[in-house]
Amino acid sequence: MRRFLILALGIVLAGCGMQTRYTVEVLGHTFVAESDKSGDFGAGSLDLYLPDADGDVTTPDGGFLAQAPSAVVEHLYAAQAVLAVDLTNTGSTDLTAALDFYLAPASETGNIYQPPYRVDGATLVVPPGEAGRLVLDLRLAKDAHRTAYQRLKDSGGAFRIGFHLRLSGDGGRYQIDTASLALTSERLGQILGP
Amino acid sequence: MGLMIRRSILLGGLLVASLAWAQGVREAGMGGVSLPGPGQAVANPAFLAIEDGFRRPGWRLPLGALGLLLPDRSPLYYFTDRQVFFDRFDGLSFYDQFTHLDSFLINPETSPAEVRIEVKSDGVSVTDGAGHPLRLAYQDGGSGGHRPSPLLYLPFSLGQGLHLGLGAYAGVEKLGLEPDAKLAAVLAGTPLAANERYSVTASAHASSGLNLDFALALPLPAPKGRLYAGVRGAAFLGLARVDGALTATLTTDDQARPANSETATRIFYSYPQNGGLGYGLSLDVGLAYADEDAVYGVGLRDLFRYSHWSGTEVINAGGSQTERQTSRTELGFAPAVYLNAAGHAPAGPEKLLWALDLGFSGGFFGHAGVEYPLGPVALRGGLGYENGLRFGVGTGLDLGPVALDLALTSHTGIFSGKQVFGLAASVGF
C-alpha cells in the first residue's frame, strides 16, 4: 500500500502518464566560446577539440562533463548527437574535413580523444572556391554502437563528450553551427513497471 | 481487511459521492454557479434557515465515478492488472477526473507524450516535444488549502434553529508546481549563472475523513424582507492524508554549465494502518437575505481553523531514505469568502432564473448563469472562472413522472490550459 501511495503521488506530482518519455538535450555549441566557434586557417592542417577543457582548443583534453538524470540513461530509449560545421574553401586545393564524436567515462579526465572512445564520424571534401556543410547526425543504436551505448547506460548519468574537427587544405574558414546531444528515456510505464 | 472489500468500499464511496455531489446538474448547466439554499449550507450556514426555492429534485447519475473506472484514469488497475496500469495510467487524467467527480470528462487532461528539457547557455526550456512550452508554475485547489467540501452531506434539523450535519469528504486540497525565483528567471530568458542552484518543487495535499457539524441558523429582525444568520462549528475526523513534495535541483559549474542534477522527495502520509489519525475544528458564519424576487448570501468558511494529524514522514534525498513518526498541527485564520445571489426576473411570458456567485478561497472564483423555461423544457447556460474559464450549457426536461437534467460543462486544465469538457446527468421521479 505504501509503495502504491508513493508511486501514485509521484506520478501525479510529476504530471506524468505511463506513455511519457523524457528527453534531456544539451545544446553544447552554446557552451563553446564564441572565439572558438569560427576561424580561418592557412595551408596545412588544423585540429580542434571542442568543447575546450584545458584552455587550448587545439589540444586533446577531457572534453565536456555531462550530467544527465540517472533514470534517463539507465532506461535509455534513444540517444542522438548532431554536429554541424559550415566550411568555406578559400584555397586552391580541396579542403578535407573530418568530424568525429567521442564519448568517455566521467573518470577519463585527461584525454577522451582516444580510439576506444570514438563513436562515429563523418567527412566532407570541399572543392576550391566553394562552401559546404559537414553534418554528423548520429543516432546511437544499441547494436551499431554497442560499446558507446553500454558506456552511456552504465554511466549513472555522468559522462564526457567532445568532438574532434580536423581540417586539411591550403586555406579556408570554419563555423561551428550545431553540437547537441539528446537522450530520451523509455516510457515511464517501462521504467516503473513490474 | 480484504483487498476486494477495500476496493468495494472505495468504489462504493465514489458512487455515493457522485450521486450526492453537492452541486447539481442544474447548476453545472448554468456555468457552475451555486443557487442559494440548504444545498449550499456548507459555504454559508445561514442557508439552513431559508426555504429552498431553487431545489430541483433528482439523483445525479454517477458518470464521474464511472470515468474513474477507465484504464487511463483508474489507479485501481494497480491492484487488479498491473500491466494495464503501467501501460495506460495517466496521472493527470486521474487527477482531472478525481477533482471533477461531478461529470464524466470527455477529454481529460493528458500527460505529454514527451517532456523535453533543453539546456543551453542562455537558459533552460521545457516543452512537450512538439515545441509547446509546458506550464512550470501553477496552483490548483480552489479551496486554497481548506479542507475539501463534503462529498456527502446530510443535514438534520433539531428544532429551534439547531441543525446537525453528518458527512464525508475526500479530495485534493492543493496541487502545485513552483520553480524557485532563480529558475523562474531562467525560464523567462535570463542566462544560467555560474555555481548556482536552481530548483522546482511539485507539491500535493489530499485528505479524506468524516464531518460532524453543529449549526444554529435563526431569523433576525429586518425592516423589509427576511434576514437570517447562521453559525456552525465544523468538526472532522481525518481518516487519510497525504502531503507530498518533489524537488528537482540543477547545479551549474564555474562556467555556468549544468553540472549536476538531483531530486528529493518528502512525503507525509497518515491512515489508520500506520497509526495515523487526524482531527480538527473550524468555525463558519454566514448571513442570508431574501425578498420576494431574490435571495442573497454571504458566508465565511474557516473563520477559525485547527487541525492535527499524526502519521509517517518519509524523506528521500542524497541517495538515502529516512522515515519517522511525526505530527502536523495547523492553527489559524484563513477564511474562504463566499457571496451569492439568485432570483427570478420577468422575461417575456415566463420568468428568467438568474444566479451569481463570487468568492475567494486560495484564489478568486465567480460564476453567472441563467435558466429560462419553455414549457416542459428549461434551457440553461452560464460562464465562470475557477483557475481559468469554464462554461456550462444544459437542459431540464419534465417528462410527466420523470424529470431529466443534462449538462455539458467545461473547465480549464491546470497543466495544459486546454478546455476540458464533461457530461453530467440526473434523473428525478
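Strands of chain A lie at 21-27, 38-50, 64-67, 76-89, 95-105, 118-126, 131-140, 158-185.
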